[in-house]
Write a structure and sequence with these properties.
alpha/beta, two-stranded antiparallel sheet, 6-stranded parallel β-sheet, binds flavin mononucleotide, 4 helices
Length: 143
């Protein structure tokens, strides 16, 4: 049991959909999950009080979205050390964002990361639903 915060940064809905599926997986496993758009995370307090943090961004022009970069700087000011962590994102061909988020969480926030980053071209194709829900289940199992 525990509470997870899933934060997504996207533009056309795919990363948001993955965020929702990860949250479903967390809940299936018996934990709580809140899903928020990165634009709703404005102050340090907005990140307080969770046992797991799952951050995701779509990749645009080889990078994570600006909102997620800004939020990671905000997260640096909090103490998330030892909390469970995960990273995800939709991508088209190169998919830099999930790996960058994963590495930043591991090295700077010092969260206890699950597996590797979850990268999906589409939540709805090629087993995406199961993979995203499975990622959420793996997060919850670490809680
Ligand atoms: C202008 C533009 C630039 C993009 N740049 C990249 C890129 O550099 N690498 C990549 O893997 N995908 C890139 N994509 C594809 C998006 O990551 C992909 O469409 C993704 O599903 C969008 O997620 P979202 O719906 O959460 O915004 C780009 C898409 C657009 C429209």
């Amino acid at each position: 049991m525990g509470k997870a915060l899933v934060v997504y940064a996207g533009r056309s809905g795919e990363t948001e959909r993955i965020a929702g599926l990860i949250a479903e997986g967390i809940r299936i496993q018996g934990s709580e999950a809140s899903v928020v758009n990165v634009t709703e995370v404005k102050k340090v307090d907005d990140l307080a009080g969770f046992d797991a943090y799952v951050f995701g961004s779509a990749t645009y022009h080889g990078e994570m979205m600006q909102g997620m970069k800004t939020m990671l700087f905000l997260a640096e000011k909090t103490d998330l050390e030892g909390k469970v962590g995960g990273a995800f994102g939709a991508f088209g061909w190169s998919g830099e964002a999930p790996g960058r988020i994963f590495d930043t969480m591991k090295n700077i926030l010092k969260t206890d990361m699950v597996n590797g980053p979850l990268m999906l071209k589409s939540a709805l194709l090629g087993g995406g639903i199961e993979m995203a829900q499975g990622y959420g289940k793996d997060i919850a199992k670490k809680l």
